[in-house]
Amino acid sequence: MAIEEVRAPTLAEVCAHEAGHAVVQLASGPGEWIEYIEVNNQDEGRLGVVWSQAEWQPWMREEPAPPEIAERRRRAAARDVVNYLAGNVAEFRFRGRPRIEIKFGCGEMANACVAEPLESRTDYGLARNRLAWITPGAERIGFMHAWLATESIVASWWSEILLLAGELERRGRLTDEDLYPLWNGMRDARTTRALAHARRTADWLPRHRADLDETDRFAP
Questions:
Q1: Span 131-141, pLDDT tens digits
Q2: Does the pTM exceed 0.90?
Q3: How far apart are CA 17 and CA 92, in angstroms?
Q4: CA 123/CA 162 separation, integer angstroms
């Protein structure tokens, strides 16, 4: 899977990228508040941002802490890594890359990540900064584990990512007052779909169990 794309991303691809960041962060549960999401469709380049405080901060690397606090910080850093990778995973999927190709590309993406300077403010640079603390000396392995986990989360929430990307493409900017009602609606709809599926599954078994019992009754 090519690391470098020979063309600039389209507006729709940028929207999918930013929606991937946002939905994966929201789906991970209570966390840092997202102030806004914005895409820039100017001639000089299409860029986007999800404006939110990261859970892990560099000062946590140096400040001593008891084991339970240190573990909480490691988990926060790990969640940040997934959030940073979610944009690229979502963009690759939106561009039509098959899931298996995205998964097998984790080694190539890991090479791109560890090549980033620790002070880089790109998605991969910010991920590497945290991986260097979580998995010192094994950032590449840590990245691959995080990439595969992120791919699975993005796949699970793909419908919601597409819905949010479409709304972002239409509006260009979503404030927290726009985003959270949208998210709550998508989450509620997902719960409704899951309950409906569970009811269908529950209804299916007794009905077919009766059919099987009838078959068994007349079996030789």
A1: 999 999 999 99
A2: no
A3: 8
A4: 20
